[in-house]
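Quick one:
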Amino acid sequence: MSSKVKRAIFILIFSEFLVCLGISLVIPVMPFLRNELHLSALDMGIMTSLFAFAQFVASPIVGRVSDRIGRKPVLAVGLFLYMVSEVLFALTNYLWLFDVSRLIGGLSAAMVVPTAMAFAADITTKRQRAKVISCFQWRVDPRSRNWWNFSRY
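Output:
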């Protein structure tokens, strides 16, 4: 595997790592938001679940779009939208804007996570593909060491 492909895969894995942090980003600040904005448990539950719901709904649609227009534009827009959602989440004090931020974050996750895996499959050979895709396994099983020992590929 060339150094250019290794670098691309590292960037894909790092991008996916950042986006996957977004689904749980709200959890540490929930008690502060609840106390500061006097939110109910239902409000907090909806805000937490909107990210996953948006990702669930948008993933198949984004998959077709990335097949049609290419992986790089979808990844670039997805990372930009992720930045927008996190900045919006950091700067707002209104529940509806928190919800919009979480929806945008879920859409961006739907744009980055499956597209990054598809892009990794596109730039590797059939022989390398399983090893490279296993580098993305840390999302499912953090005990997996494949993504850590990336240099052996």
